[in-house]
């Protein structure tokens, strides 16, 4: 459903938020290892997230990536998805057809429309704080 870049962006954001709660900045190398992503690809994704002001990059000996604690609860998953994949996830055809709408629907148009609406609602109502705290408590995992 999401692009690979978006999947990595979501996982990286959750990992950075989790570390930020402990006042710990994380390096590119650490993030790439934790989310099991190639470093160069992770760097490009993190640049997009920095450019969209979702994460913060700090240069220098004690640098790395972080999210200010005050911003973790305010950051919705929809912001991360939009920064990386745009809004195409809310518009695309369930079968990948180039033309699919109310007038020329694909065979799964109505069912997929409902799923897209639910997905949008979930992404807009879920924030990084909820997910980071679940990871910190052990209730959910980024990797096994």
UniProtKB/TrEMBL annotation:
GO terms for molecular function: DNA-binding transcription factor activity. One of its GO terms (cellular component) is cytosol. Coiled coil: none annotated. It comes from the Bacteria. It holds the Pfam family Rrf2. This is BadM/Rrf2 family transcriptional regulator. It comes from Gelidibacter sediminis.
């Amino acid at each position: 459903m999401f692009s690979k870049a978006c999947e990595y962006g979501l996982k990286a954001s959750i990992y950075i938020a989790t570390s930020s709660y402990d006042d710990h900045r994380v390096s590119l190398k650490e993030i790439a290892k934790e989310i099991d992503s190639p470093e160069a690809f992770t760097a490009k994704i993190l640049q997009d997230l920095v450019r969209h002001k979702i994460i913060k990059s700090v240069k220098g000996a004690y640098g790395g990536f972080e999210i200010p604690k005050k911003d973790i609860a305010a950051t919705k998953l929809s912001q991360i998805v939009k920064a990386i994949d745009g809004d195409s996830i809310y518009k695309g055809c369930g079968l990948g057809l180039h033309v699919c709408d109310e007038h020329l629907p694909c065979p799964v148009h109505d069912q997929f429309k409902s799923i897209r609406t639910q997905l949008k609602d979930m992404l807009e109502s879920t924030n990084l704080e909820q997910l980071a705290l679940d990871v910190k408590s052990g209730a959910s995992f980024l990797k096994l």
